[in-house]
Amino acid sequence: MEVEKGKGTDVSDVQGEDDLDEEPGEEIESAPPLKVGEERELGNSGIKKKLLNNGIHWETPEFGDEVTVHFVGTLLNGIKFCSTRDNGEPITFELGEGKVAKGLDNGITTMKKGERVLFTLPPDFGYGAEGRDGVPPDSIVQFEVELLSWITVVDICKDGGIIKKIMEKGERNERPSDLDEVLVKYQVTLAGGTIVAKTPEEGYEFYVKDGHLFPALTKAIITMKRGEKVKLIVQPKYAFGDKGKEATDGFPSIPPNSVLNVELELVSFKPVIDVTGDSKVFKKILKEGEGALVANEGAAVTISYIAWLEDGTVFERKGVDGGQPLEFITDEEQVIPGLDRAAATMKKGEQALLTICPEYGFGSVVAERDLAVVPPSSNLVYEVEMLDFVKEKAPWELNNQEKIEAAGKKKEEGNILFKDGNYQRAGKKYDKAVDYVSEDGLFQDDEQKQIKALRISCWLNGAACSLKLSDFWGAIQLCSKVLDFESYNVKALYRRAQAYMKTSDLISAEMDIKKALEADPQNREVKLLQKTLRQLQVESNKRDAKLFTNMFAQMLKGSSMPVKKLKVEIAEPEKSEEAAATERECVAEPSTPSEDRMAVDQS
């Protein structure tokens, strides 16, 4: 077999990563590194590797990659049968195709760049029973190999449709997502070298989700790192298919079913984040901030910004042109929600462009700002820089007394918000309060009574918020936490019964009301809730009776038995005098107990 030089990649033969699960040489990864002069078998393959010179870095090529090597092949008696060093030109070939010898490909996948080794190949991994010129049948052969370099080759869609060769590696491990804005440079050519598309010198910028030119570009871009340069071989179905493309912008037309060659560079990209998760507040990072910490909720932040409408009208400036920056505490409704939520995600020194829908802006009202009036239902744009922030201290940063004080403060803030009807924010305050006193083991015996009272109070108040927000399962969970500590807590039983009634679990509601009356027989609010429950039970029984009557009638209608006349009566059970009186009372006075009669715990 002759040594083949400079042969290009056969796209149809590129192996996918799924084919490479159990190749010889895998076990070497968990073994100690070879020392110079040391020899070791690769797995149980019979292939032996002797290290002659160390390589650099830690990466190794994979099957499908294009490697460039020098090698000398010899028999065990030292007779040479092939060599790239004779003419001084290395060979480039694709790993996995067995261009030189099958076992040689397996061995090269264990090598680092610049490494020089001696591989000993048994016949099954050499030239087998047939041999080759200069190699007798069933011969053990040796290859002295130096790995000069390699190009990583990736089958992006796993179908040979887009083959990516990495010519220059990128920076870091970050890759763009569908929302991000990318800056790329590319040149597209036909098989004969005709240029059919090319970016300006400065490149071209677009959002990944919007796509550009043809599908293969965006599919390749999301696999690339910043600064990465690649060559793509694109089959027609990921290019312009059987329609081709007409001549435009001074470039010739692209014939139908054309395979395209693309030189592509991802110059940079600006991450775009869906801040609110509903595509109504987007943050495009113009400049990365410092470190890893973000402002988060409850932080005291200082920002500068310019804000404008979609038509370019600037309506507010803060901290620019000598003006004072804006200072506020996040999650305290001191600024519009979109700006508030976005600021909580920013690092110190970060610059970002925010696009904010009306729901997270000024809504459907007219807003008079410093420089202009914001019309109702306006989309807003803010260019913001996070100048500084001071994060609210986390529980682990506080001593026990500070945790108890912080929990008490959050609870009081929640109470004020509850009175103002801001149940969503009040509930978050109660949750934060509990976070400060959530670890039993960290508190002394004399502090346990305080933290138990704080937790129970906040859970109860949080349940009241959940009821107001129609989050009935949330209310049930919070009340159940209280009842785990105090099984006869009347407020917890009362609120959980309310939530059960709202979810039509009348049996559980009845059990909670009964237990609450055992603890406090004269509680007016619980008695009123019991009346409402009985009314609901009467209505439920009537619905059930009607349902079963209809079902029974349908069954008889479909029966083949001769029936002259059948009168179905559902007899109601005899009611006690007390039950009858209760029903009359419920019908005459269907009053629903006020949810506010057991108000939030102020203690």
Record keyword descriptors for this entry.
603 residues; 4 domains; Chitinase A, domain 3; alpha+beta; disordered N terminus; 23% strand; seven-stranded antiparallel beta sheet; 11 helices; 13-stranded antiparallel beta sheet
CATH superfamily of the largest domain: Tetratricopeptide repeat domain
Secondary structure: helix percent: 25-40%
Number of helices: 11
As for the number of domains, it is 4
User: What is the distance, rounded to the nearest whole angstrom, between the alpha carbons of the first and last residues?
Assistant: 91 Å
Catalytic activity: [protein]-peptidylproline (omega=180) = [protein]-peptidylproline (omega=0)
EC number: 5.2.1.8
InterPro entries: FKBP4/5/8-like, PPIase_dom_sf, PPIase_FKBP_dom, TPR-like_helical_dom_sf, TPR_rpt
Keywords: Isomerase, Repeat, Rotamase, TPR repeat
Describe it for me?
The protein is of the alpha+beta class. The protein folds into four domains: 38-150, Chitinase A, domain 3, CATH 3.10.50; 162-269, Chitinase A, domain 3 (Roll); 273-390, Chitinase A, domain 3 (Roll), CATH 3.10.50; 400-534, Serine Threonine Protein Phosphatase 5, Tetratricopeptide repeat (Alpha Horseshoe). The chain has eleven helices and 22 strands. It has helices spanning 102-108, 215-221, 337-343, 400-419, 423-436, 445-468, 472-485, 490-502, 506-519, 524-557, 577-588; strands at residues 39-41, 48-53, 66-75, 80-83, 91-94, 116-121, 141-155, 162-168, 181-189, 195-198, 204-207, 229-234, 260-270, 272-274, 281-287, 300-309, 314-318, 326-329, 351-356, 367-368, 373-374, 380-390. Strands 1, 2, 3, 4, 5, 6, 7, 8, 9, 10, 11, 12 and 13 form a 13-stranded antiparallel beta sheet that branches. Strands 14, 15, 16, 17, 18, 19 and 22 form a seven-stranded antiparallel beta sheet that branches. Strand 9 and strand 10 (195-198) form a beta hairpin. Helix 4 packs antiparallel against helix 5 and helix 7 runs antiparallel to helix 8 (490-502). The longest helix has 34 residues, at 524-557. The protein starts with 38 loop residues before the first strand and ends in a 15-residue tail after the last helix. 30% of the residues are buried.
